[in-house]
Amino acid sequence: MIQGIAASNGIAIAKAYQLVTPELTYEKKSIDNPNKEVERLEDALGTAKQELEKIREHTRNEMGDEHAEIFSAHLLVLDDPELINPIKDKITNDNIMAETALEETTNMFIDMFKNMDNEYMRERAADIQDVSKRVLAHLLGVIVPSPALIDEEVIVIANDLTPSDTAQLNREFVQGFATDIGGRTSHSAIMARSLEIPAVVGTKKITSNVKQGDMIIVDGIEGNVIVNPSDNELATYKAKQEEFEKQKEEWAKLKDEPTITADKEQVELAANIGTPDDVAGVLANGGEGIGLYRTEFLYMGKNQLPTEDEQYDAYKSVLEQMEDKPVVVRTLDIGGDKELSYLDLPEELNPFLGFRAIRFCLENEHVFRTQLRALLRASVHGNLKIMFPMVATLEEFRQAKGILLDEKQNLNDEGTAVSDGIEVGIMVEIPSTAVTAKQFAKEVDFFSIGTNDLIQYTMAADRMNERVSYLYQPYHPAILNLVSTVIEAAHAENKWVGMCGEMAGDSIAIPALLGLGLDEFSMSATSILPARTQLRGLSKETMTSYKDKLLSMGTTEEVVEFIKEKTE
Ligand code: PEP
Ligand code: MG
After folding, report:
1. Which of 113, 305, 379, 568 is most buried, with most CB under 10 Å away?
2. CA–CA gap between residue 157 and residue 152 (Å, rounded)
3. Average pLDDT of 385-394?
């Protein structure tokens, strides 16, 4: 059994699909028939072409034209005689293997384009690199795995899944996944929960312990992976799978019920989403709103910024699907572990402390303004609230809000309708903001506490780093005190407070957060019904009476023991 971190609930049993880039090494040999080498090259080009067409088709169907564009660019490279003919000439003139001719020629073009002072040409270098690897793999008879090529039921095994890998996973076939790295709050884990597929992350060794086609079980409840299970183990986990399905049926009974505690206090249970497609899962799980729409997925897995209209369509779709339920849309939170290759931002030593989110948007106003205009235009289609991420100072909030109001004025002047009731809030995920929440509360309409980041900044423990994960402690009194400070400050100004970090859906945290007075809990869609079940059994009054005691505790262990004892 391989242990990891339980990232998404449920049990999956299927064959392993290794999503690991293969080593493309070969021995250089002399050749005696250059024509045969040219033929091999043509075959490899043909197979690569068919494969890329399939990936492009799949991406277009799953994610739309814009995301498929990158593969069109790759197909153009494959068909470009200015690249292909020199490879063929090299084979015949120098009498060398197709592999060597391919590598030498493409490397020459890559070096040339990479050094040009032109972003477009630098992107072409990246395209040639990708295509050349794919053709080389086919020459060597090695399979290049792609999430888009999966066409049977499998469990995906990878070192890590990038957000664009995860976005390409075919929900119909991918039963679950397991990765070497990552934690509960890494984006692959968050995506697994919104796709509602079982996942275990941070196993450290899954890719080296599992072979392509091995039978595996992913236990996303306990965080274990079983490789080539015995008949007994298989039977045990099939039973566990059935039990989980039954439990889900029980939870489902509360789908249309309000979220009311045992002493009749109401709180809101909302969901975190990444794409408009996730809304169906939110409604199916009884979500009362969207507490966090992570818009960065609109910007990722493609080779240019999304247009205003493209964004407008996505926001409108979410607002319409949610009817008049609240939808909190977070403006672009890029940086940290979420990169945009086409922006060509310089590498940073500490990306989580670097040029990200609102910092990037305030310096790249055109990007920010495009998003704000799309949001403002979409606002007439539902109950929109706008939220700025990673705000560290009041000036940042004022500046961002100023730009928002400026765009609203521009749209009014153009005669475009914009809702007048849009609330504007911030994420509290930096300790400076939590500590000065009183000052912010006078100016913002709401707070949403982003504990995924707030914990890492408060404890100085990188949320992606397994070696310091012991310090990443959601129930630490330091975190509870910051959360309490934010809630008290907001309530004193009659503002509401939500939480959209993973902590909001955690069964140990929920009683404490109820006692601290949290108004809205926003979580992965699949956590909503278990949370509603739990909240119906808790008394808010009793939990509130424990507040001072919880805030004065010294350690996480004391907090956990106390909550367990009081809620059993
Ligand atoms: C957070 O930091 O808690 C949060 C919700 O944002 P993200 O996980 O996208 O950084
Ligand atoms: Mg965050």
Report:
1. 379
2. 15
3. 98
Together in a domain, 461 and 516:
yes
Q: How confident is the model at residue 190 (pLDDT cuts 50, 70, 90)?
A: confident
Query: Is there a domain that residue 29 lies in?
Result: no
Sign of CA dihedral 385, 389, 394, 400: negative
Any idea which residue has 């592999």 for tokens? Answer: 99
Which residues share a beta bridge with 301?
Answer: none
In the numeric block, which tokens belong to residue 48? Answer: 């690569």
Written as one letter, the residue type at 58 is: H
> Distance (Å, rounded) from C-alpha 181 to C-alpha 188?
10
216 residue type, one letter: I
Reduced to 3 states (helix: H, G, I; strand: E, B; else coil), residue 386 is: strand
Q: Are 271 and 290 in contact (CB under 8 A)?
A: yes
* Average of per-residue pLDDT across 424-430: 98
Q: Does the Cβ of 163 fall within 6 Å of ligand 1? A: no
Number of domains present in the structure of the chain: 3
Whether the predicted pLDDT of 328 surpasses 90: yes
CA of 339 to the centre of ligand 1 (A): 15
Distance 273 CA to ligand 2 centre (A): 14
Q: Is there a single domain that holds both residue 555 and residue 454?
A: yes
Conformational region of residue 75, where left means phi above 0, alpha means psi within -120 to 50, and beta covers everything else = alpha
Closest residue by Cα to atom 8, ligand 1, is: 452
**Residue 466 above 80 pLDDT?**
no
Tell me which residue range forms the domain holding 107: 34-139
Question: Do 310 and 411 share a domain, yes or no?
Answer: yes
- Domain end, chosen from 226, 249, 272, is at 249
Q: How much of the chain exceeds pLDDT 70, in percent?
A: 99
Q: Helix H segments across 379-471? A: 394-414, 431-435, 437-441, 451-459
As a whole number of angstroms, the distance between CA 536 and CA 540 comes to 10
CA distances from 431 to 441, 481, 504 (A): 15, 11, 18
Residue 167 has a pLDDT of 65
Domain assignment present for 359: yes
What does the alpha-carbon distance between residue 253 and residue 491 come to, in Å, rounded to a whole number? 33
Q: What is the pLDDT of residues 36-58, one digit of tens each?
A: 999 999 999 999 999 899 888 88
